[in-house]
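[Automated response] Your request has been received and processed.

Submitted sequence:
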Amino acid sequence: MGLLERRGEVRTKVIPDTKKGTVQAEVRENVEPGSEVSTEALASCEGRDPEYVHQVINHAECYAKGRIYTNCMENFWSVLKRGIKGTYVSVEPFHLFRYVDEQAFRFNSRKDNDAGRFVAVAVSVVGRRLTYRGLIGENGVCHLADKAVASA
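Generated structure:
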């Protein structure tokens, strides 16, 4: 799932399903009440909380209606999918969040230069340790921090 603030940062999360309750809980957790929310015409997005101004774009009809569009988020997913299919080739489900997080970092630091991104990554790993057991996991579950995701 992805949320993108116009001309801002993207937030992503691997979620267990696309059911209404799951999707809308993530929106409530990450989007300030009163915000305009533009989504595709999906059943899981219908009946959004009255706290948000919900605008829908139906891609069967068009891709944009003035300020109502999801093209920026579509671009993010396109780049992620090209990376998975073309660069990484095979991604295990319990590692998916890592690839999504990497792409979100790349997107959110797109205005920075290589040196800036390198420093940001170096600073973020200080004091952290990744062991082989933590990376591979046991019984198809990766046990890193709070991002444990069971494999399918």
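Summary generated for your ticket: Strands lie at 2-4, 10-12, 36-40, 53-57, 64-65, 68-69. Residues 145-152 have pLDDT under 50 and may be disordered.
If you did not submit this request, please reply to this message.
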